[in-house]
Amino acid sequence: MSLNIVVFIIPEAGFFKEFGRKLAILKELTINENGCEIFDVYIFENKYVLIERWADQAAIDAHMREIYTEEFINQTKAHLEGIEVYRLESTQ
Fold it and tell me: Domain range spanning residue 38?
């Protein structure tokens, strides 16, 4: 059963465009990972919204260990005002 995740990220206003550029690179790398079914990025107001679907927890764990994921987190975490992560459960 796939795992669905929604992430809301609020970068600092002065870092918003740069965050978007870095996130676009992360997306291009992530969508090619084994187990990544969906990795979509949207903007809503002052937030970036990630819609993710993963084959299983092992795929998420592998994604979080990727060098580019770790670099993205390290390069952006000091410029975030907030982050919310939600795991969605299917109603079916």
Answer: 3-88
